């Protein structure tokens, strides 16, 4: 299926009515079939759109309005329940169709495994791709209880595809000892616990390179984002995450695509996670789509 054929119900605030003249395509990947702990992220994209109505369209951080970015919300990809492989294939084909038209893909998850087919599509177009990954978890497992298609494996798959030296993880505070060792032995960068300061040091090294940025909402402390499947104490504040998005926006890296994953509304009783996510999406659009 192509991005311009997707069902479109409620859309993100200020989405353009047509995709043709859009620079960026926003889309949902409502999949949570492989999570090991609490499911529910399949409902994330829809809720992020719904609460976006409460956002201002102007960003005082970036002095830019959503009106200045031409983006089209293509809705959710109609992924088949319980079929991870076919879902991943559909996501890859969908993103291929966005890249074919020269547009910027901005995805909303869904569990983190959805980033894997997106990265595959990005790498076909950008052979010198680098990845910036913000997350509580390493996501570097080979498999989970024998299952390689798991939400704990996407960064390992991505690192093996594009080369571990091209993957930069930030905010990591959870994972198996073997995962950290694998990263170290293979030259993959992991910044434990912090995001903004280490990011400032890495960004100049990525200048002018195409970069895919994948943000797992659980990089935030559970106090800032309780509405996610696998919460992990000791995370960063939403202020630091916003500052990190802005730091990337002001750097010389060429963000070529991005996603925000793992928002699970069922655990989000105050709706602060969905509201935070929709503000993050606004800042990603305003900062990274140029
Ligand atoms: Mn993750």
Automatic annotation (TrEMBL):
Substrates-to-products reaction catalysed: agmatine + H2O = urea + putrescine
Family the entry assigns: Belongs to the arginase family. Agmatinase subfamily.
What's the cofactor? Mn(2+)
Q: Which PROSITE patterns match?
A: ARGINASE_1 (PS01053), ARGINASE_2 (PS51409)
What is the organism of origin for this protein? Bacillus sonorensis L12
Point out the signal peptide segment.
none
- The EC code for this enzyme is 3.5.3.11
Task: Give the binding site residues for Mn(2+).
Answer: 112, 135, 137, 139, 216, 218
Output the SUPFAM superfamilies linked to this UniProt entry: Arginase/deacetylase
- Bound cofactor: record note: Binds 2 manganese ions per subunit.
What Gene Ontology biological process does one annotation of this record name? putrescine biosynthetic process from arginine, via agmatine
This one is known as: Agmatinase
Query: What is the role of the protein in this entry?
Result: Catalyzes the formation of putrescine from agmatine.
Q: What does the record give as its pathway?
A: Amine and polyamine biosynthesis; putrescine biosynthesis via agmatine pathway; putrescine from agmatine: step 1/1
Q: What InterPro entries does this protein's entry cite? A: Agmatinase-rel (IPR005925), Ureohydrolase (IPR006035), Ureohydrolase_dom_sf (IPR023696), Ureohydrolase_Mn_BS (IPR020855)
Gene3D superfamilies per the record? Ureohydrolase domain (3.40.800.10)
Which Pfam families does its entry note?
Answer: Arginase (PF00491)
Query: What GO annotations for molecular function exist for this entry?
Result: agmatinase activity; metal ion binding
- This protein's UniProt keywords: Hydrolase, Manganese, Metal-binding, Polyamine biosynthesis, Putrescine biosynthesis, Spermidine biosynthesis
């Amino acid at each position: 299926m192509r991005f311009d054929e997707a069902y479109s119900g409620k859309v993100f605030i200020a989405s353009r009515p047509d995709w043709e003249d859009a620079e960026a395509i926003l889309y949902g990947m409502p999949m949570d079939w492989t999570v090991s702990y609490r499911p529910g992220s399949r409902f994330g994209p829809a809720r992020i759109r719904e609460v976006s109505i409460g956002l201002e369209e102007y960003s005082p951080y970036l002095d830019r309005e959503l009106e200045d970015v031409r983006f089209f919300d293509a809705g959710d990809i109609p992924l088949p329940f319980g079929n991870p492989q076919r879902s991943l294939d559909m996501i890859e084909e969908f993103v291929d169709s966005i890249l074919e038209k020269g547009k910027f893909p901005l995805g909303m998850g869904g569990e983190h495994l959805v980033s894997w087919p997106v990265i595959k599509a990005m790498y076909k177009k950008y052979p010198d791709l680098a990845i910036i990954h913000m997350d509580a978890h390493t996501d570097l497992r080979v498999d989970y209880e024998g299952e390689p298609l798991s939400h704990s494996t996407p960064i390992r798959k991505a690192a093996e595809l594009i080369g571990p030296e091209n993957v930069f993880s930030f905010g990591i505070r959870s994972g198996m000892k073997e995962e950290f060792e694998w990263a170290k032995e293979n030259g993959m960068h992991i910044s434990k616990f912090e995001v903004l300061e280490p990011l400032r040091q890495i960004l100049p090294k990525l200048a002018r390179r195409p970069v895919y940025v994948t943000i797992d909402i659980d990089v935030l402390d559970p106090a800032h984002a309780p509405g996610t499947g696998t919460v992990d104490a000791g995370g960063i504040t939403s202020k630091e995450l916003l500052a990190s998005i802005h730091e990337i926006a002001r750097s010389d890296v060429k963000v070529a695509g991005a996603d925000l994953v793992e928002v699970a509304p069922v655990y989000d009783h105050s709706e602060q996670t969905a509201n935070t996510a929709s503000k993050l999406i606004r800042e990603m659009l305003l900062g990274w789509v140029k």
